[in-house]
Amino acid sequence: MKKTVFREYFESLVIAVILALFVRTWVFQAFQIPTGSMENTLLVGDHVIVNKMIFAPAMTGFERAILPGREIRRGDVIVHKFPQDPERDFIKRVIGLPGDRLELHEKKVYINGKPLDDPWGQYLMPAGMDVQNPKSIEYGPVTVPSDQYFMMGDNRDNSEDSRYWGFLPRSYVKGKALFIYFSFEEGQPLSKFFSDTHWNRILARVR
Q1: 16 or 178, which is more confident?
Q2: What are the b/e assignments for 92-101, b being 16+ CB within 10 Å?
Q3: Catalytic choice (92, 107, 136, 183)
Q4: Residues 6+ apart with CB under 8 A from 97
Q5: Which of 25, 33, 44, 49 is 20 to 30 A away from residue 198, measured at CA?
Q6: 24-54, pLDDT tens digit by residue?
Q7: Which residues, other chains included, contact 21 with Cβ-Cβ below 8 Å and sequence gap of 6+?
């Protein structure tokens, strides 16, 4: 029996919805930056695309050969579940890998006793002045457990990260931030869409 036009449209719509759900669940996800904890890498109002496949475990050698996956690296910007409330998503940068001995001294990060080459970190105040936030000055040493990570926001004086809520379990990692697909001045009306859109940030890679 020949399909009706309505049925063909309906089946196409169902397939499109299924594919969209598959992509969102397993491949890519959109994420909006809600706070300034990752400034100046990511600003409030940035919308980023997150690759959810890159850190997904491969069950077979064939999967490892064809899927674009890799291990988590220091410096990766990652969207993850908040350990104290897994229903919330956070975005932070990987600073400490499993087995690392990490500490902060006068706002400088040390990994295994050596100062970290840290081009990402931004500090709003000198070490001697920030008395209200002592963990941004001195912290540790701590050793990162197996299958866990030490996460930090790039805005080091204004970030709720592993210094305050501990290590991030590997199972809480959702994906790697890829690029900014849209950026709009937070809190502005749509009438200012053209003037308050950060056009220079659109399609910028997250590094």
Answers
A1: 178
A2: bbbbbbeebe
A3: 92
A4: 72, 73, 74, 144, 149, 150
A5: 25
A6: 445 788 899 999 999 999 999 999 999 988 8
A7: none
Of 69, 73, 62, residue with least CA distance to 96: 73
Active site residue 37: yes
Note whether 162 and 102 are within 8 A (CB): no
**Out of 2, 3, 12, 37, which one is annotated catalytic?**
37
pLDDT one-digit tens code per residue, 54-69:
887 655 555 455 556 7
Structural domains of the chain in order of their starting residue, each with its CATH number = 29-201 (2.10.109.10)
Q: At residue 18, does pLDDT exceed 70?
A: no
Give the per-residue pLDDT at 190.
67
